[in-house]
Amino acid sequence: MSNKAFPTDILKQAQQTLDAWKKIDPGLSLGDLNPGEIEANLNKLSPIQSRINSLKAELTDQHNQRDDVCVALWAQVKRARAGIKGVYGDNSSQYEMMGGTRLSERKPAARKAAAPASAPAKTE
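and the corresponding structure tokens:
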């Protein structure tokens, strides 16, 4: 359930309400509510929503640029570690300083227990 106090398509619904109200009776007021108030709020909302959409597009572009740089940086880190591992060995202090785990500090692979063989069923 959403915590917003309005539906996501509020702009569409408000415009539909305003259009219908103008067709029914533009002079009709419901208490202090009239079509002019709805139209005024629609006019306020449109530029705000446009700015939000523009900022979302800009943010998406920034995320994509960041992701591209991170992929390139990760490739460089892996290459540097592999180079140090090749030059100094995978159990060296230098490899550990680069962020690698020394061979002597790695846990041995855990052996999985073999599943018990199922005995053939007896037939009498």
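(Above: one complete record from the training split.) Residues 35-88 form the longest helix (54 residues).
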